[in-house]
Amino acid sequence: MKLFFASDLHGCLPATDKMLAEFERSGAQTLVLLGDVLNHGPRNPVPEGYNPPQVAQRLNQYADRIIAVRGNCDSEVDQMLLSFPMMMDYAWVLLESGQRLFLTHGHLYNAAKRPALRSGDAIVHGHSHVPVAMRDGEQFIFNPGSVTFPREGYVASFGVLENDTLSVVAFGGETIASVSLR
């Protein structure tokens, strides 16, 4: 199983198109969207190429391949444009190994405020716009960074789960961080 993770698109069409091209190239079966899909939010500037209706149209072409969770900038009005559910605060993915990925945006649950997780589970979230791939005690923390508004000097990035390894990858192919789930 290969999963592709993206977070914090914030309605930016050029960033979305770039992300979808990387998703296609990756060969991943599933695109996991970790929230803040269409709206830029009041704390962010309006991104260049801001076009939520077109972003929705592009993403809807992949509706049967998307797992999405709600971000703090996502609303019921946004859901009306999308052909896939994205109003859940979290979702679970069960890996073949029995490990679980807890998918959330990061404003309710995050590395510092985790739900009940078992040894070997991972919390996967966006929200901070800062890439992370690490083991923390008996669990894993993964954040693919932001497609549109990277922070703390990082570049725009996405995430991939392949061969039991979670990796944050910059557009252009450089691995920023990775952690093995074994």
Helix and strand layout, with pairings?
Layout: E1 3-6, H1 13-26, E2 30-33, H2 52-60, E3 66-68, H3 76-79, E4 90-94, E5 100-104, E6 122-125, E7 132-136, E8 139-143, E9 157-162, E10 165-170, E11 175-180
Parallel strand pairs: 1-2, 2-3, 5-6, 6-8
Antiparallel strand pairs: 1-9, 4-5, 7-8, 9-10, 10-11
Structure characterization notes:
- The chain is of the alpha/beta class and 182 residues long.
- The protein has a single domain, classed as Metallo-dependent phosphatases (Purple Acid Phosphatase, chain A, domain 2).
- It has three helices and eleven strands.
- It is globular, with a radius of gyration of 15 Å.
- The two termini are 15 Å apart.
- Residues 1-164 form the Calcineurin-like phosphoesterase domain.
- It comes from Vibrio variabilis.
- InterPro entries: Calcineurin-like_PHP_lpxH, Metallo-depent_PP-like, MPP_YfcE, Phosphodiesterase_MJ0936/Vps29.
- This is Phosphoesterase.
What brief labels describe this structure?
182 residues; alpha/beta; Purple Acid Phosphatase, chain A, domain 2; 6-stranded mixed beta sheet; 5-stranded mixed beta sheet; 3 helices; 15% helix; 29% strand
Offer a concise description of the structure.
This protein has helices spanning 13-26, 52-60, 76-79, and strands at 3-6, 30-33, 66-68, 90-94, 100-104, 122-125, 132-136, 139-143, 157-162, 165-170, 175-180. It has 182 residues and is an alpha/beta fold.
